[in-house]
Amino acid sequence: MINLKQVRRAIRCFIKSYLPKYQVTLIVDDRENLSIHLNHLRPKLGEKLNQQNANFNKWISSHYTGTTQHYIYGESKKLLALGLSRYDLDKVIDLKDPEKKAGKNWADIALAAHLFDELLSVRVTQVLLISADGDFSSIPVLLRQHGISSILLSPVENAKVLQHAFCKELSMAPFLLELDNDLIIQKNKNDADIKDVVIFILLKYFDDYQRINLAEVGKILIRYLNTNNGNWFGYGSLKNLCNALGPDYMVEGNYLVKIGNNNKLKVA
């Protein structure tokens, strides 16, 4: 009697060896779990990854010969809140538990079930699992039974169970480093924008001695920012705010004093 599993293994082996351009790499992306974990590593890192989803796909595809099929798993509403675009949501395999009882285990089971439905294609020669979850160590064992290689892509350093179970591991560090640098650049740009706003607000309030009382600074900012929370602008926070604006202005006693002739407001 013909064993279909053995036939598929033999065909996959032939494709790997002689027709590598025709092989398919399934990308199993546990994105909801991954995004939450990345946000714990650095605020907004998970959202940044989701916003750069197209570049993430290209980066992954560049490591493999043949075709890649990328499946994103997670609850659509949560992924939308985590920064994934509505366009990319069309590609999501929604793992929302209809009973709302089984929780995360239900999502893991649903992900694995969908994965093995896709393995009916003999062109699938390897599976790349993207996850920060250590609960998928059984998947590589099942894949080997089908003659399929398993690759792990995970930011979790302590996922040693997964690392030992999978055939290979692809480091996520280079792509995360790019995202991290983008976040730093964006933060610096936002800080610069905040400085420009404060500069614009305060410049016209300096007296003939080119100074302004810090208490007055607080009142002006509260009025412009439409907030009654005076705790935002106590002496300490105002001094720190002024000192962050640059070298052309400085705090002397209770005053912010202009020490340069530039049109931009800066403080030493």
Describe the structure.
- With 268 residues, the chain is α/β, with parallel strands linked by helices.
- The protein folds into two domains: 4-171, Rossmann fold; 191-258.
- Helices cover 49% and strands 16% of the residues.
- The chain is built from twelve helices and nine strands.
- It has helices spanning 4-18, 31-41, 45-51, 53-61, 76-81, 86-89, 104-118, 139-145, 160-165, 173-202, 214-225, 235-243; strands at 24-29, 67-74, 92-94, 124-130, 149-153, 168-169, 211-213, 249-252, 255-258.
- It has a six-stranded parallel β-sheet. It has a three-stranded antiparallel β-sheet with strand order 7-9-8.
- Strand 4, helix 8 and strand 5 form a beta-alpha-beta unit.
- Helix 2 (31-41) packs across helix 3.
- The longest helix has 30 residues, at 173-202.
- The chain is elongated and about 100 Å long.
- The chain starts with a helix and ends in a 10-residue tail after the last strand.
- Mean pLDDT is 78; it is low at 262-268.
Furnish the topology, listing elements before pairings.
Layout: H1 4-18, E1 24-29, H2 31-41, H3 45-51, H4 53-61, E2 67-74, H5 76-81, H6 86-89, E3 92-94, H7 104-118, E4 124-130, H8 139-145, E5 149-153, H9 160-165, E6 168-169, H10 173-202, E7 211-213, H11 214-225, H12 235-243, E8 249-252, E9 255-258
Parallel strand pairs: 1-2, 1-4, 2-3, 4-5, 5-6
Antiparallel strand pairs: 7-9, 8-9
